[in-house]
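Reopening this ticket.

The earlier resolution said the output was attached, but the attachment link was broken on my side. Pasting everything inline this time so it's all in one place.
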Amino acid sequence: MRKICVINQKGGVGKTTTTVNIAYGLAEAGKSVLVIDFDPQGNVSKCFPITESKGDMHDILVDSANPNECLHKIKENLFVITSRETLVKAELIMAGESGREHLMIRKLAGLQDFDYILIDCAPSLGLLNQNAMLYCKEAFVPVSTDYLGLEGLKKMIATVNTMNDVFEHDLKITKVIPTLYDARLKTCKESLAKIQNEFYEAATNPIRTNSKLREAPKASKTIFEYAKSSNGAKDYKQLVGHVLHDEGEFSGEKEVKVDVQEGGMVVAVF
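Inline output:
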């Protein structure tokens, strides 16, 4: 089972869009997939047609609800555990718990087996994201193709290194995903070139800016359902293909070290 947090402390880089579209694409490929919304904004549930009321991540973390009873089935092979604003309260309660950074591991221990668990993280470095990083073995980092996006990526890499060192963990950044890419803009082209040069082991194809990607959540659909011929669908289809191709490579057969080196950054070193 691949457990992946989609994370970046910088907001507005397409974390939720990336999470739901990768998840849907993997499910279409026959993989069993669970999406966990770990953001109090609860945007994942807006991207899928969820109408029934079930327990959410607050109930799992605070009230020890059975995670298997909180699953929303979206389609064959695709399930979601939702969150809402009460997750903020859960984080405050978690702060007083013993071993609070590993609470998610304990609370989800009985979760049924999936091929993939994708966690949509909030744009922060709080206790919730610490739990997500320690629960997962991989991190996908969407990064906007601009100067501030690159700065946010550097901070995210440093955070992963710190978490690994402090908790003797082995979270690996296996995908750096350039988003909001507009080939007409010089800053986008320059930022993309830097990402692809400095993070060549982990950098993916860019996700082009596309109006259909912004419209799809309003219809409670992924880009594959809303506009399957759009550039957004084409870009995410290619990304899903890369994730599937990497199944053996990032399942433990090869060691990937996350590191930052003076004079340049190396994200995945084999």
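Reporter confirms the inline version is readable. The domain at 2-269 is CATH 3.40.50.300 (Rossmann fold). The first strand starts at residue 2 and ends at 6.
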